Amino acid sequence: MIQVEGLTRRFALADGGEVLAVDDLSFTAGPGEVFGLLGPNGAGKTTTLRMLLGLLRPTSGRATIAGYDSRLHPDEVKRRVGLVSANVGVYPHLTVLETLLFFGDLYGVEPSAAADETFRLARLFGLKDLLRRRCGTLSTGQRQRLNLARALIHRPPVLLLDEPTLGLDVLGSQVVAEFVAHARTEGKAVILTTHRLDEAERLCDRFGLLHQGRLIQTGTLQELRQATGCAGLVEMFLKLAHTGPMLAE
Amino acid sequence: MCTAPSEKQDPLTPSPLHPLNPSRLFRLARKELTEILRDRRTIVTLLVMPLLLYPLLTVVFGQFVFGGRTTEMAPVYRLGFSSKTDYNELESRFDFEKQRPHPEALTALPHREPRLFLFQLDNLDQNVRDGVVDVAFRRKPAAAAAVPGEIAIDWELVYREDSPDALEAVAYLDRLCARTNGDILSQRLKSAGVRQRSDPIRLAAAPLEVEERHGLSLAVFVPLVLILMTMTGAVYPAIDLIAGERERGTLEVLIAAPVPRVSLLFGKYVAVVTVAVLTALVNLGSLTVSLLVGGFAERVFGSGGIRVGTLLEIFGLVLLFAAFFSAVLLVVTSFARSFKEAQAYLIPLMVVALLPGVVGLLPGLRLSGLLTVVPLLNIVLLARDLLEGHADPVSAAVVVLATAAYAVLAIALAAQVFGAEGVLYGESGGWRALLRRGR
């Protein structure tokens, strides 16, 4: 479902230099699989997702989603992807119902189907009583549930989740965990990025450890344990990234 | 660990629509309009400001520029005297209570005969300072002993230099005195057997009908004010719907949808133009009502007053300007990464946009040649010509076409910039990076 081959992205700097944000990245994710793209801040996770969705043009390499190249057929890719991002806001003056119907319309969902899907998702995410409420009055957790519902309005086969639990409390994080499980059950291919390696162990089936733009290891938790001799992802990452003590002597 | 999918995962989406599909554009614009019209800040600019501003301006303008009088009202002067004796003496000469236009003054320079109110007061200077009277009469001692039989009366007129009414009253009294002096001399010459009319030299006014007025016409302020208000109405929606989208964090999910950016931008453009036009309508309505109620319609629009056809023409020009300026606003705000940055870009834009409007106030400037294609200046001059009833159809057509062309160019440029990588993600790398798009 998702194939990434040699994806690379360089950013030009104002002083004439450049930053290699993503370096020759390759991985796959199939239907019903949750692939965790893990790494610290600045590792290139969000840049990778943006290239997958065609929001950023790769310097080299390619990414295909459901058989469509994200550079050649960006609209076909977008129709098949639901995006949940940590920094996503809401339209404060639209109601929850208007927001969901608007995004249904953006993705070309027929109005009657969009209405049915809206009410189904509202029941699923506990938004039924909030449909007539303006989004500007929602709490953080309610907004995140709205964003999760919004990503599913057009029933995409692929979900890209960029730091979906950022800023959420334990209950909010649980909603995300159940959302990911639900997506797995529905056979969607999910790529989830996070710097919370402990959380990733709970949510993901396979992992890609990203450090300074390079994929240093991929595999299931069992495979990574065998390869690194470490029990947890944190230890694995620190070992594979060859990082020493973080504090100077 | 993979699980078999429990249902077919085709997305619920039909084939993509044309980027400029009218029903899609309508729905996009409807969402943007819903959002912006529910915002309190839009309501303040759209409704509250015009409904308060024009009545206030009319009152202030009328009081301080026209001295509280309209074209239909005769001037009113309040005159003060310190004693009944003084009043009686002056009354016997000027005949205040029976002042009528001098019969021979029908051919004199035209002026309106005022209504006079006379007060006997103790402290004349203080009463003038306090504005109780416009002018006070104070007897002056004679410069020299009067020759027997000679009429020699000296009075001082006490008044405030900063009072328009007082200055007019002094001028009126000066004319009155000149006329009375002439009558007195005529009478005395007649008694001496010399026949001489009181005004040996007369000037008669014979104004000509002209097509073009020289000097500053008040009519040119009307379209300038409307254009300023239209700009004010369009600024907030343009910032909020473009830069505000990025600041709220909704721009990325919007661009992530399979909708061409030109469609998204056009929906926002329609919303900005609509709010700008609504602002212009409310301003035009409030201005018209204020001028009518305040009695300034003729002074601004001429003897014909406000005509419906003229109002419709002015509205058409404002609509054209709104379409053009909204497109320019979208270009500028598309470069901004935040609300604050957009405001910083728009301040110099507003200053630059005001310059042609101010230049349009210069007397004697004709709408012709290159001026027909100078943005904003051409609209201000055309609106002035329409109000003064001498607009040239060919120049008008050039103004409309040029402005429409500028609007199309601006939208095309905005479509290039809106959602560009450099704007979306704050990429440094100069203008080339800014114009590189994600697709």
Produce a short descriptive summary:
The complex is a heterodimer of chains A (249) and B (439). Chain A is α/β, with parallel strands linked by helices and 249 residues long.
Secondary-structure blueprint:
The complex is a heterodimer of chains A (249) and B (439).
Chain A: E1 2-12, E2 18-29, E3 34-38, H1 45-53, E4 60-65, E5 68-69, H2 74-79, E6 81-85, H3 96-106, H4 111-124, H5 140-152, E7 158-162, H6 170-185, E8 189-194, H7 197-203, E9 206-211, E10 214-220, H8 221-228, H9 233-240
Parallel strand pairs in A: 3-8, 3-9, 6-7, 7-8
Antiparallel strand pairs in A: 1-2, 1-4, 4-5, 9-10
Helix pairs in contact in A: 3-4, 5-6, 8-9
Chain B: H1 22-37, H2 40-64, E1 76-81, H3 84-94, E2 115-120, H4 124-129, E3 135-139, E4 155-159, H5 164-191, H6 221-241, H7 243-248, H8 251-255, H9 261-294, H10 297-301, H11 308-334, H12 339-359, H13 377-388, H14 393-417, H15 421-424, H16 430-435
Parallel strand pairs in B: 1-2, 1-3
Antiparallel strand pairs in B: 3-4
